[in-house]
Design goal:
Blueprint (H helix, E strand, L loop, with lengths): L1 E6 L1 E10 L2 E10 L2 H9 L3 E5 L1 H7 L4 H4 L4 E5 L3 H5 L2 H6 L6 H10 L3 E5 L15 H6 L5
Parallel strand pairs: 1-4, 1-5, 5-6
Antiparallel strand pairs: 2-3
Length: 140
């Protein structure tokens, strides 16, 4: 099985103020390493796209999504996938990659949305969306 994981990375920027002085520190973290290792250990192929790379590298077309049996969106905001800088900066029209993902799922591929700080932002998802109903109950 080929799994695409998008998200689950972050940059932390901290500013401390001490009197008239300020100190700035930063760090970068990847929160999906154990999941990737576990999936690979069980024979799955995994492609991970970080949050900051997803702006450019998340698949734009159905043919780009086709190799992936499952797409995992983990702690990634909707606007990371939907709002390309060229659209915001220059008004260029770009495909809505969440609509492309919807068609990919409707064609029988899997989608897993993992909760996190940025999960489900920018959308009105609930347990009664069309995709959830279409998936149906787990088989025994």
């Amino acid at each position: 099985m080929h799994v695409l994981i998008a998200g689950e990375t972050w940059v932390t920027h901290k500013v401390e103020v001490k009197g008239f002085s300020t100190y700035s520190t930063g760090s970068y973290a990847v929160g999906v390493s154990e999941l990737v290792e576990g999936l690979r250990a069980h024979g799955h192929e995994v492609t991970h796209i970080t949050n900051h790379d997803a702006v450019e590298d998340f698949p734009w077309t159905l043919s780009e999504l086709e190799p992936f049996d499952v797409v995992v969106l983990s702690d990634i905001s909707a606007d990371t996938i939907q709002l390309h800088p060229a659209s915001v900066d220059r008004g260029e029209r770009k495909p809505d990659r969440l609509r492309v993902l919807k068609v990919h799922v409707e064609q029988g591929h899997g989608l897993l949305m993992v909760g996190g700080y940025m999960s489900f932002s920018g959308c009105t998802f609930s347990a009664t969306t069309d995709l959830t109903r279409r998936a149906g109950p787990p088989s025994s």
